[in-house]
Structure formats: structure tokens, C-alpha cells
Amino acid sequence: MNKVILSGRLVADPETKYFSKDNGEESAVSRYTLAVQRIGKNEEHDSADFVRCVCFGARASFCEKYLNKGMKMLVSGYLHTGSFKDKDGKTVYTTDVYVDEQEFAETKKKENESNYVPGEDLPSN
């Protein structure tokens, strides 16, 4: 089984590229990096993993339209490993999450919206 579920924030705006398929149709690929907070015993040191995510087709177009740096996202997909030769001829190994699903993990606050939570100011018994 190869299944990944992540919650994190985009470290930069997604990079989306369009290309033509062999049949002449246009398709898209979008890449972004999520900063995923590590949960551990040592809470004094905040640490995160930076996970590269890749979307194709309609998911990639969605990324280009709606995702921005700092947004908190929920992502599910699968690990995909690969390799390529860099300019010096060395093999570089890659591990990406190929995204099957992505959702917003929080809503934007309006400028005039306060942080008030109903019932928060009630005395406790």
C-alpha cells in the first residue's frame, strides 16, 4: 500500500506549466512544497519536513487559480520516486507526493472579522 496524507502550509506559490499531449490536448502540471510540522517529544524545537507535491490536469489548474504561499492544505496521494542527471552528470534521486486529493484546511478571515469565539467569555463552573 502506498498512501500519504499530509497537513501543512505552502512555502511558496505553486509553479504551474502547461504542455500539449500527443493527441493535441493541453494539460497542466503543478508543483508546490508543503511545510509539514513534525510531532515529537521535544516541543522546544519546532521542526518541519518540506514535502514536494505534484498535481496533474484539473488539479494543477486548481492549484494555479486558488493556492498561494502560506495557505494551509490537506493533501492525500502516493509517493513517487524517480531520478535524473544533473548538469554535472550526477544522478539526483527524488521523492514526491503525487496528489489525488487536496482541500483547504482553513478559511480566510475577513478584514473586519474578529477572533471572537462564541461562549469563550462565559465563566467556567
TrEMBL record:
SUPFAM superfamilies: Nucleic acid-binding proteins. Residues 106-125 are annotated as: Disordered. The keyword Transferase does not apply. GO terms for molecular function: single-stranded DNA binding. Keywords: DNA-binding. One of its GO terms (biological process) is DNA replication. This is Single-stranded DNA-binding protein.
